[in-house]
């Protein structure tokens, strides 16, 4: 036997083929196929070392807690850039990259997928689903994408125009593609990351601002065949309900205003988690369509399953239980924000719980075995409720529903916590939560009609159906952004760090006693997870909204963050004076690479020189608010986000406004064509407002 092996060894050497040549070259198609083919349900569930980051929230529980500690509180100051990668995008970047044995998958705006070799920082492949730019107007909150799913050698991405696409992980070639929209006449989109459980790809849709019905769908990961679909709100009562659960839910809606014509809402545009031991899938549902309950359901009612956590049997798609966090939602208080599954002690007893901080400003602890309410405590100031009773119902304030006057809802519709992921450390017992307030007043629009443009109602000429005047009166609350370390057992804040602006990025926590977060003004920071002390920071060139990740490659720990300012707040607002393309930054101890160059934001002088009739300003304001304000902000007042503020435009732009509004001059950037929505005689009125506001605020000489 020994002679046999010696002979074999001599044969290999004699053939002149080094033994190392038989190993797969890292980053080759063979290597990628081998390492990604191993990612399945067991690999994700048993990812105890967390050397890879194989799923959106790292693990099924979506804790975003890494057990890696090579980078820790003692050496984090030695972090340096290893490489940066240009995502070639100018709109919002919200994705958390997936990484398996040094192969990274990350998405940019317009749902473009990039495969990157972590060992070199070089591109392996890209896939562009070629989303038609004219569908950009169908999304409330920028043309963003939160990332991909990885399963058995395939990468799954949802495109902004509501397709679900399976790609070969090694080559980026399309394996299959499915249209997830149930009605192409409705503005369904996808911005969330798919998840894969039990051989099924799970994806929800967006669009509730525009008038759609929410649902979530499971597709066979191998073939793309639809396995089941769960609707979150009841449909037309003249037709059979899809399940008994929806028949029960319909009793909480008033049909007098035909809520189903505006869809009802309840879209599952972000949070999806899975407990393999309990075999339960958990989803967070969105706001009503329209926002105003008085128009959606005039007789009142809780309007199930809006603003709820819903547990579903993943094998059948059948309802198991629900807990509604905001009954009769009237403020765009979605429950789609990321959920974390954790095992904690409550009153000294172990409990399997869901930790959740939705838009409404309360931090919830819910029993995930049965949906029973355990506790809720506000983590920011709120004025719509004083708390929750023992049964888990909110105790609303007298001013919470004020249909006849403007109401400064606190938190505002952008939420005390939005989609930006939070993280949970079992070592500290704390949740690391991006908290905020973005003041915005609400008032019912009593004359609302579905899909009808109303002067002065934001977005109503872009398809928005809120049935509310937004910002009709000045807000009195103050904006802020902060990082909170929250104790879910004590339901109290452990520490906080104040940021300069709202709309900061998601968080990552590690066993190295570190919390990482990017900020709106363009910094990436590491904090001590126990104390909140700031330990390290680096500039990122533009504002950060996504959450970072960390992983090991060839024995070395890296931290990566995908950067690109945007999202609903970032369209028209910014906190950074720098601007750069979407970029992935990757750091390690001892990194020496130079930061990429970024540009300084240069605002032109306030617009002047555009002739107009002052009498046209009031109607121009109504047209502008209905058609332009959500993307461009208030002319000369806001600074512009990833879309320019028109109050700082060159006069030639506004003098030739019809070419932009009707001619499609910026169609390739997602600018909608308002042909048929605006009239030629509206253009002088728009010009009057766009020039009139800068004239009114220009300092007098």
Sequence-ordered SSE layout with sheet pairings:
Elements: H1 2-14, H2 29-37, H3 41-45, E1 65-66, E2 79-86, E3 98-100, E4 103-107, E5 113-117, E6 122-127, E7 149-151, E8 154-158, E9 163-168, E10 174-179, E11 195-197, E12 200-204, E13 215-220, E14 226-231, H4 244-250, E15 264-265, E16 272-275, E17 280-284, E18 288-289, H5 293-296, E19 308-313, E20 318-324, E21 339-346, E22 349-356, E23 362-367, E24 373-378, E25 385-388, E26 394-396, E27 407-408, E28 423-425, E29 430-437, E30 441-444, E31 468-470, E32 480-487, E33 492-499, E34 507-510, E35 514-518, E36 523-528, E37 534-539, E38 549-553, E39 556-563, H6 567-570, E40 578-579, E41 583-589, E42 599-600, H7 617-627, H8 629-632, H9 651-655, H10 657-661, H11 683-697
Q: What is the strand arrangement across the widest sheet?
A: 1-34-35-36-37
The whole-angstrom Rg is 25 Å
Strand content: 25-35%
- The 3D shape can be described as globular
Helix content: 10-25%
What is the typical, i.e. mean, pLDDT?
Answer: 94
Number of helices: 11
Q: How many strands in all?
A: 42
> Major β-sheet, in short?
5 strands, mixed
Structural class: mainly beta
Tags for this entry?
single chain, 701 residues, mainly beta, five-stranded mixed β-sheet, four-stranded antiparallel β-sheet, 11 helices, 12% helix
Structure description:
This protein has 701 residues and is mostly beta strands. Helix content is 12%, strand content 30%. A five-stranded mixed beta sheet has the order 1-34-35-36-37, with no helix packed on it. A four-stranded antiparallel beta sheet has the order 2-41-39-38, with no helix packed on it. Strand 25 and strand 26 form a beta hairpin. The N and C termini lie far apart (99 Å).
């Amino acid at each position: 036997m020994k002679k046999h092996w010696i002979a074999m060894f001599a044969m290999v050497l004699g053939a002149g083929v080094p033994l190392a040549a038989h190993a797969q070259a890292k980053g080759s198609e063979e290597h990628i196929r081998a390492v990604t083919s191993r990612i399945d349900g067991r690999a994700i569930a048993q990812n105890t070392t967390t050397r890879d980051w194989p799923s959106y929230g790292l693990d099924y529980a979506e804790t975003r807690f890494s057990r890696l500690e090579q980078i820790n509180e003692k050496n984090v100051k030695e972090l340096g850039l290893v490489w940066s990668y240009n995502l070639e995008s100018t709109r919002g970047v919200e994705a958390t990259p997936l990484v398996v044995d040094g192969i990274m998958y990350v998405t940019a705006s317009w749902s473009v997928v990039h495969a990157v070799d972590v060992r070199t920082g070089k591109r392996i492949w890209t896939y562009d689903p070629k989303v038609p730019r004219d569908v950009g107007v169908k999304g409330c909150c920028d043309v963003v994408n939160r990332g991909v799913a990885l399963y058995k050698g395939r990468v799954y991405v949802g495109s902004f125009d509501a397709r679900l696409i399976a790609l070969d992980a090694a080559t980026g070639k399309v394996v299959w593609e499915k249209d997830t929209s149930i009605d192409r006449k409705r503005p369904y989109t996808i911005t969330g990351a798919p998840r894969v459980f039990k051989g099924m790809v799970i994806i929800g849709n967006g669009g509730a601002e525009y008038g759609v019905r929410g649902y979530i769908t499971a597709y066979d990961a191998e073939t793309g065949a639809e396995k089941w679909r769960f609707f979150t709100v009841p449909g037309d009562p003249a037709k059979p309900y899809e399940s008994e659960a929806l028949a029960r839910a319909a009793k909480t809606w008033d049909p007098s205003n035909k809520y189903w014509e505006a869809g009802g809402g309840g879209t599952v545009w972000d949070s999806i988690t899975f407990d393999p031991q309990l075999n339960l899938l958990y989803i967070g549902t969105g706001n009503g369509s329209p926002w105003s309950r008085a128009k959606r359901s005039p007789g009142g009612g809780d309007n199930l399953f809006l603003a709820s956590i819903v547990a579903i049997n993943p094998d059948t798609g059948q309802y198991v239980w629900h807990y509604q966090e905001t009954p009769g939602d009237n403020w765009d208080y979605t429950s789609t924000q990321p959920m974390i599954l954790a095992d904690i002690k409550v009153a000294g007893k172990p409990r399997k719980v869901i930790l959740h901080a939705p838009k409404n400003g309360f931090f919830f602890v819910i029993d995930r075995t049965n949906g029973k309410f355990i506790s809720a405590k506000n983590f920011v100031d709120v004025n719509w409720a004083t708390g929750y009773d023992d049964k888990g119902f909110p105790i609303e304030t007298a001013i919470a529903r004020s249909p006849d006057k403007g109401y400064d809802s606190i938190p505002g519709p952008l939420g005390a916590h939005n989609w930006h992921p939070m993280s949970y450390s079992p070592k500290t017992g704390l949740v690391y939560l991006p908290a905020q307030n973005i003041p915005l007043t609400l008032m019912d629009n009593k004359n609302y009609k579905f899909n009808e443009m109303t002067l002065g109602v934001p977005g109503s000429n872009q398809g928005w159906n809120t049935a509310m005047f937004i910002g009709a009166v000045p807000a009195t609350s103050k904006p802020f952004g902060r990082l909170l370390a929250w104790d879910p057992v004590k339901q109290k804040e452990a520490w906080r760090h104040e940021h300069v602006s709202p709309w900061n990025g998601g968080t990552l926590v590690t066993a190295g006693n570190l919390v990482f977060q990017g900020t709106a003004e363009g910094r990436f920071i590491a904090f001590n997870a126990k104390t909140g002390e700031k330990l390290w920071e680096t500039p990122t060139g533009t504002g950060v909204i996504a959450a970072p990740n960390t992983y090991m490659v060839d024995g070395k720990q890296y931290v990566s963050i995908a950067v690109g300012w945007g999202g609903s707040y970032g369209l028209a607002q910014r906190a950074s004076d720098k601007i750069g393309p979407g970029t992935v930054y990757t750091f390690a101890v001892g990194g020496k690479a130079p930061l990429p160059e970024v540009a300084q934001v240069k605002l032109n002088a306030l617009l002047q020189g555009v002739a107009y009739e002052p009498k046209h300003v009031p109607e121009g304001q109504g047209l502008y608010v209905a058609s332009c304000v959500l993307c461009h902000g208030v002319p000369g007042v806001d600074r512009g986000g990833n879309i320019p503020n028109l109050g700082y435009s060159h006069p030639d732009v506004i003098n030739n406004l019809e070419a932009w509004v009707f001619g499609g001059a910026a169609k390739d950037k997602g600018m909608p064509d308002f042909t048929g929505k605006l009239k030629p005689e509206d253009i002088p009125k728009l010009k009057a407002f766009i020039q009139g506001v800068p004239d009114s605020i220009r300092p007098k000489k």
